[in-house]
Structure prediction request, 305 residues.
Amino acid sequence: MQNSINDLNFSTLKRKGIVAIRQVGDLLYISGHGPEDEVTGKPFYTGRLGENIRLEQGYNAARICGAILLRALEDYLGCIDKIDYIVKAFGLISSAVDFYDQEKVMDGFSDLMVEVLGRRGMHARTAVGTSNLPSGNIPVEIEIIVKIKQ
Amino acid sequence: MSKLDLKLNELEINLSKKDRKGKGIVTIRKYNDLLYISGHGPTDVNGKPLYTGKLGNDLTIDEGYQAARLCGINILSSIADYIGDLDRVDYIVKALGLVASSPDFFDQPAVMHGFSDLMVEVFGERGLHARSAMGTNTLPDNIPVEIELIVKIRD
Prediction:
């Protein structure tokens, strides 16, 4: 993982009614995470793809979402070795109406999962465009389901 | 030929082999007896969209319906590739349908019926499923419909 990502101080989401991770048996349902500092809430990237943020920036934003999700998993599990495999990812990409490369943006997340977890990082995936996302106009939000070892 | 293959023949639905895997992505991830299936679009075998555009702008509801049906056919192809025999599908659990829509288009469920009708034609009661349909401003490759699915299989 990039040093810049390692240096960031992430904590799990704690807001009224929301938890970062809900466990059912050996499945973890993980809330949508954006490319934002989990302590200050400040986004590392803002904007819409096809409007005011480039594809490479979108890719990096998705990669940072992936790093934050892994950190949330590490917080929860103690160690990411306890991840059996990534089941499924759902990626929302804030997009101009004529932007159609959502899959390429989401590759930032998917590439990171395989770099970190190898074959265990492979997952089913849906990438969709949307007109706007929360937290001060983040470009990407990703939720995942993870199978853990028990 | 399985019972289901016969049924598909009767409906004149040809399931084709295809591989849309990119790095890190698989079409289907299995968890116990559940299949989590990636979002599928109305594409041909090579992943080329056969429908493009947005409902309310470029496509009629009927075209959207046909696009959703084609998503369903592509998903059945992927399941058949993965488990070999579609008779092993126990039932469809849940579908999420995303419909690329102009801001004043509100008939997303009518579009998604193209998928849901197909599931019931193919699987009968086993094809019944929970479903969400939602509009969005744009989808990958300008496809009008994208559908992801959770399926229960017989282990």
Summary: The first strand of chain A starts at residue 14 and ends at 15. Residues 2 and 67 of chain A are 9 Å apart (CA to CA). The beta strands of chain A are 14-15, 18-19, 21-24, 27-33, 83-94, 124-130, 140-148. Chain A has four helices and seven strands.
